[in-house]
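Below is a filled-in request sheet from our internal design queue. Each sheet records the structural input a requester submitted and the sequence that came back. We keep these sheets so that new team members can see what a complete request looks like end to end.

REQUESTER: design group, bay 2
PRIORITY: normal
MODE: inverse folding
CHAIN LENGTH: 129
BACKBONE (tokenized):
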């Protein structure tokens, strides 16, 4: 399956994401910091990056602005979406969702992105209309 890098500082949410990914037989690597996430992305060139937008050592936008990681398939994750962040993500053509997300929603989103799909914003919950 795919190699997915999870950059998320909230331990419970990170473990939830890791459990979902490994249940789908993906190889998943995790970190809680922007700095380590950049190093892992540069070294491993994962198939997909699940990137929290608010990290203790910087913004997910800082990650997206690094020339050597541009072109990676990234899904941005945020608990709070404001107009500035939304505009920044749309300008970078990044798929994003506002937490929380259901397990099924995460599976669907990951599968969609791994097959080349990009669709801007999703609420992460397939049960909502």
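RETURNED SEQUENCE:
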């Amino acid at each position: 399956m795919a190699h997915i890098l999870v950059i998320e500082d909230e331990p419970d949410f990170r473990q939830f994401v890791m459990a979902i990914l490994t249940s789908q037989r993906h190889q998943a690597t995790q970190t809680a910091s922007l700095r380590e996430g950049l190093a892992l992305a540069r070294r491993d060139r994962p198939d997909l990056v699940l990137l929290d937008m608010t990290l203790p050592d910087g913004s997910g936008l800082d990650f997206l602005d690094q020339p050597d990681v541009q072109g990676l398939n990234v899904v941005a994750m945020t608990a709070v979406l404001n107009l500035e962040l939304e505009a920044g993500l749309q300008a970078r053509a990044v798929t994003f969702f506002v937490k929380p997300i259901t397990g099924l929603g995460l599976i669907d989103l990951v599968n969609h992105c791994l097959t080349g799909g990009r669709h801007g914003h999703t609420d992460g919950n397939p049960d909502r209309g």
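SHEET NOTES:
- The chain has one domain: 3-122.
- The two ends are 30 Å apart (CA to CA).
FILED BY: M.R.
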